[in-house]
Amino acid sequence: MRRCWLDALLLVLALLAGAAAAAPGREELAVRASQDAIGRPAGGWELVDQRGRALRLDQLNDKPLVVSFIYTGCFQVCPATTQFLKGAVAEARRALGPAAFRVVSIGFNQPFDGPEALAEFAAQQRVDDAEWLFVAPREQDVEPLLQRFGLSVQRTPSGFDHLIQASIVDQHGVIAHQVYGDRFELRMFVDPLKQVLAGEATSKLSIANVWTKVKLYCTVYDPYTGKYKLDYSLFFELFAGITTLGAMGWFLLRNLRHV
């Protein structure tokens, strides 16, 4: 009888351990929620920037947008994340153009993350970028705004626990990519911006956009320097290949006509 009881207890413990192993962790669930946000419209949320100016998020849709979430009372993670993002933004601007995209950092701890607190946070982080805004949403919009971007935030005794992400919104106002971590490989940030900019250049046919497409194609990552560089040899190789194929096609077509 005792043996049966021990066997049953071991079986229950094994089942519980298996269920715990199979159940996704909190971080995995947070990433799933974040990924589910890809393809959603970012929305036209009413905001106030660090200078007290009212605006709507969808007013910024004339160029790609990088959206991060912060709270100004954070003394470690948010400042460190903002500093790393500042470096990534600087390199992306050097590679893609100084005004190729905008950045918006949203203070979600309302009503404490008001314009004054955001301006002080931006000054402390030495973010002096005309294309980077620090904004406050309305207090009643915080939860639906976080849900729209797939960001899970949990209040803790020391502040907030949340997934560190930067969302890339395309020119149509749609969340296109998520970039994770307080530190990430530069290509994880710049390449999605390149894709969004290339899509914009393709959708509007003009000489300027064709040239933009060429520059984006020729902007490549150099693993030796950890930076992006322009390599027009790729364009000339592609052009030579297309020209060769065109000449071969014309030659074959001409000979078929004489058969």
Structural overview:
- The chain is α+β, with helices and mostly antiparallel strands and 259 residues long.
- The chain has a domain at 26-185: Glutaredoxin.
- It is 48% helix and 20% strand.
- It has helices spanning 2-22, 26-36, 77-96, 115-124, 142-148, 186-203, 207-218, 233-257; strands at 46-49, 54-56, 65-70, 102-107, 132-137, 153-156, 159-162, 165-169, 175-180, 219-222, 227-230.
- A 7-stranded mixed sheet has the order 2-1-5-4-3-8-9, covered by helices on one side. A two-stranded antiparallel ribbon has the order 6-7.
- Helix 3 (77-96) links the parallel strand 3 and strand 4.
- Helix 3 crosses helix 6 and helix 6 packs antiparallel against helix 7.
- The longest helix is centred in the last third of the chain and has 25 residues, at 233-257.
- The termini are far apart.
- Residues 1-23 and 234-242 have low confidence and may be disordered.
Rg from Cα: 25 Å
| Number of helical segments with 4 or more residues | 8
Number of E strands: 11
What is the CATH topology classification name of the domain at 26-185? Glutaredoxin
- How many angstroms separate the termini? 94 Å
Report the average pLDDT across residues: 80
Oligomer: single chain
CATH architecture verdict of the domain at 26-185: 3-Layer(aba) Sandwich
What proportion of the residues form beta strands (DSSP E)? 15-25%
CATH superfamily of the domain at 26-185: Glutaredoxin
Unreliable runs, pLDDT <50, ≥5 residues?
A: 1-23, 234-242
**Structural class label:** alpha+beta
**Strand order across the largest sheet:** 2-1-5-4-3-8-9
Describe the main β-sheet briefly: 7 strands, mixed
